[in-house]
Write a structure and sequence with these properties.
nine-stranded mixed sheet, two-stranded antiparallel sheet, 8 helices, 13 strands, 31% helix, binds manganese (II) ion
Length: 238
């Protein structure tokens, strides 16, 4: 039986204290609103399980969460680096590589955006306030569905073509950021202090990420909806 809706794997959050895996509803709401079926991924890391997921899923949504292990970008973990999640690193990085090799769509958000940057050879600031000294507030308190800083969008990038705007007001809930991009990735959005907050990899059919949280704005927000719609449409082609 062929299926009419693409199946999108969504990386879970881990709550060690409550011994729980959990999901923010915004990710699911955004995927469902544009015709995809989201499923929360298990925290597996053995090759057979990863291959099963890579074969079954049409798209991969890399979500927000704890810091990416600095070892993945060849840095020692500094005191300013915060909580890590080795289980997610071990699930997400090989699954991401599998998706890229298969040419299947990947969308990264916040931590997921940072993992894309790192996986393709870039590096992160382990802590923006102490290392970069930015004047822009990147970690603002709730509510997260309100914008806090602007980004300028490259007109000829996938995001520029998709949204048809050269500037967007976005939310911001991160303390790390892109220090340098790999030559395999291109910037498509930047803050006034020069930080890259949107990137994509031209070598792949759909591989892009944003540092902000379109899922907190929800599918009611036209820009968030367009981004998720483009992702789910690409997944539908699989
Ligand atoms: Mn920001």
């Amino acid at each position: 039986m062929s299926r009419s809706k693409p199946l999108i794997g969504v990386a879970p959050l881990v709550d060690e204290e409550r011994e729980s895996y959990w999901m923010l509803p915004g990710y699911f709401r955004c995927v469902e609103a544009v015709g995809g079926v989201p499923v929360m991924l298990p925290l597996v890391s053995d090759p057979d399980s990863l291959r099963t997921l890579g074969d079954a899923l049409d798209g991969l949504l890399l979500t927000g969460g704890p810091d990416v292990d600095p070892a993945l970008y060849r840095q020692e973990k500094l005191p300013c680096c915060e909580e890590l999640c080795p289980q997610r690193d071990k699930l997400e990085q090989p699954l991401l590589e599998d998706f890229l090799q298969q040419g299947k769509p990947v969308l990264g958000i916040c931590r997921g955006f940072q993992l894309l940057c790192v996986h393709l050879g870039g590096e992160l600031w382990q802590d923006l306030p102490s290392q970069m000294g930015s004047q822009v507030c990147h970690r603002h308190p709730k509510p997260y569905n309100e914008p806090i800083h602007p980004v300028t969008i490259e007109k000829d990038s996938p995001l520029g073509k998709l949204l048809g705007v050269d500037r967007l007001e976005v939310n911001s809930c991160h303390h790390q950021g892109v220090k340098c991009l790999s030559p395999r990735m291109k910037a498509m959005a930047r803050t006034p202090d020069g930080l890259v907050e949107g990137l994509w990899a031209p070598d792949y059919p759909f591989c892009m990420g944003v540092q902000w949280h379109p899922e907190f704005f929800g599918p009611e927000n036209p820009h968030s909806r367009k981004l998720f719609a483009a992702f789910v449409d690409a997944c539908r082609q699989q």
